[in-house]
Design a protein that fits this description.
The chain is an alpha+beta fold and 465 residues long. The chain has four domains: 117 residues, Uridine Diphospho-n-acetylenolpyruvylglucosamine Reductase, domain 2 (2-Layer Sandwich); 128 residues, Uridine Diphospho-n-acetylenolpyruvylglucosamine Reductase, domain 3 (2-Layer Sandwich), CATH 3.30.465; 96 residues, Alpha-Beta Plaits (2-Layer Sandwich); 98 residues, GMP Synthetase, Chain A, domain 3 (2-Layer Sandwich), CATH 3.30.300. Helices cover 36% and strands 21% of the residues. It has 16 helices and 19 strands. Strand 5 and strand 6 form a beta hairpin. About 6% of the residues have low confidence. Bound molecules: flavin-adenine dinucleotide (FAD). Flavin-adenine dinucleotide binds next to strand 3, helix 7, strand 10 and helix 14.
Length: 465
């Protein structure tokens, strides 16, 4: 009963989907018909009247997320408070045969939290936002997955902790559940700790049948929440990046680390890609892994960030529990950079620090300046980064001439999971007006399909499932 939008390669369906958004007419009729009334009545019996709505004004606020996509109005939106309520909602969906989509903060840049098929309901998870347990013993935190990252971060900081990957750049709107279901993998901490999926110890999930399961050590009667792979395979893994298709993640137990006491911010530019790539290998092989190794990929990105010529530049953030360790790591990393021909333009470290401190406002700042951002993020091996940048610049700037058409294009990249692997982030900024949005949507979807075919891009939260 849990549904997902279709494959982006099916262009005809895409057009049909965009056309199905009708604020009046069909959807208006829908919301009055007998079936919807029955659905709403039954949902109200589960969660109470005040947490179900089929009111058109309410429903309209659920037809968009942060992508250029638009969805039809859902029949109803329901806001459960407990796992038991989610289970009952899914059982009802099976009995009455209506579709269910799940939504967290609705910040997905790929049409994630939208009800793309008619006669669907949306489960809005944001009322399930309790921080259930901070375990000093297991160095873990257990949350209801509707909690927003910024709330969680604030609470954990009071105890001197954070999750080693502490949220996407949309942390002021995104929920933990949405990030797990999308396998969010930029930004903070991804180089050292991996993405959201690497933070998971155990999950509680309501399957499409309404059955509730627990994963890892928590699946055993007295196991508790301390180990991910127990009692069989990595069952949590099935739900990470699944966009809510395989079940509603209701609780998550995540790793914790202590807040750092020493920080270093280093910026370095390389004239040639080869030097920059060798630099990453040097860092990985010598195990001088920083908290964050971010790449300004390509001449254009380097020029706009630092005003100098270079094929790539790096923002390196060290966060340690000890000043001496931070000093030694800094010395080593600077010496590797120098050996390989890297240079340090004036003021670059300050710029890197400013960039890091603004982690949850960067994209929003860009959006304020240039309009909405269509994200086309995906994963690639490090070696493919120069080709990916070239392809992206060719596609957006030369083929589609986006800048001449009033849009803005930029790229970013993180080295991830202590591996020669990257999250690569092309952004297309556009004014959110119907005509421009339509153009941006076509360019954006075309790009994702192109990148997959052209150089083996692996999207992680595009909604291609
Ligand atoms: C300004 C901005 C910055 C961003 N920065 C980043 C970034 O740095 N890194 C990154 O990866 N992404 C980023 N994103 C994209 C998006 O914000 C993240 O992927 C975020 O994790 C989505 O969380 P959400 O709660 O908004 O999910 P939603 O958009 O509500 O939902 C996303 C998907 O998860 C499913 N889902 C939601 N909750 C559950 C649940 N409890 N159980 C099962 N399925 C569920 C939904 O069905 C949907 O498929 C950014 C977006 C914006 C607008």
């Amino acid at each position: 009963m849990l549904w997902r939008r279709h494959n982006i390669f099916e262009k005809d369906k895409l057009n049909k989907r965009v056309m199905t958004y009708q604020p009046t007419g069909e959807n208006m009729k829908n919301s009055n018909d007998k079936f919807v009334t029955e659905v709403v009545e039954n949902l109200s019996k589960i969660v109470g009247k005040e947490r179900v709505t089929s009111n058109l004004i309410d429903l309209h606020s659920y037809v968009r997320d942060a992508s250029p996509l638009e969805a039809p109005l859902p029949m109803a939106v329901v806001k459960p408070l407990t796992t038991e309520e989610v289970s009952k909602i899914l059982k009802l969906a099976n009995e009455m045969k209506f579709r269910v989509f799940v939504r967290g903060g609705g910040t997905s840049a790929g049409g994630g939290g939208l009800a793309f098929m008619e006669n669907s309901i949306l489960i809005d998870m944001t009322a399930m936002n309790k921080i259930l347990e901070i375990s000093e013993a297991n160095m873990s935190v257990t949350v209801q997955t509707g909690v927003i990252w910024s709330t969680l971060n604030k609470e954990l900081a009071k105890h001197g902790y954070r999750v080693p990957f502490w949220g996407p750049e949309s942390a002021y709107g995104a929920t933990v559940g949405g990030s797990l279901a999308l396998a969010s993998m930029s930004s903070q901490g991804v180089t050292e700790a991996g993405g959201t999926y690497n933070q998971v110890i155990t999950l509680e999930v309501v399957l499409p049948t309404g059955e509730v399961i627990r994963t890892g050590s928590d699946s055993l009667p007295n196991g508790g929440r301390f180990a991910r792979v127990c009692n069989g395979g990595d069952y949590a893994g099935i739900f990470l990046g699944s966009m809510g298709v395989f079940g509603v993640i209701t609780e998550a137990t995540l790793k914790l680390e202590c807040l750092p006491t020493a920080q270093k911010c280093i910026g370095v530019v390389f004239k040639k890609w080869k030097q920059g790539i060798d630099f990453v290998y040097k860092i990985l092989r010598s195990k001088t892994i920083p908290k964050s190794l971010n790449i300004n990929p390509g001449m254009r990105a380097v020029k706009s960030s630092y005003g100098v010529e270079g094929e790539c530049a790096f923002r390196i953030i060290l966060e340690e529990m000890n000043e001496k360790i931070a000093d030694i790591k800094e010395q080593l990393i600077r010496s590797y950079a120098k050996e390989l021909g890297g240079f340090f333009p004036d003021g670059i470290d300050e710029k890197v620090k400013e960039w890091w401190d603004g982690m949850f406002f960067r994209l929003v700042k860009g959006e304020k300046k240039y309009g909405f951002a269509a994200h086309a993020c995906h994963r690639i091996p490090l070696q493919k980064l120069p080709i990916a940048v070239k392809e992206a610049e060719h596609y957006f700037l030369e083929v589609h001439r986006v800048e001449e058409r009033g849009m803005h294009f930029s790229v970013g990249c993180y080295v991830s999971e202590q591996r020669p692997a990257c999250g690569f982030y092309p952004f297309l900024y556009y004014r959110d007006e119907p005509e421009t949005r339509k153009i941006a949507l076509e360019i954006w979807e075309g790009w994702i399909a192109h990148a997959i075919k052209a150089y083996g891009a692996c999207p992680y939260w595009m909604g291609i499932v």
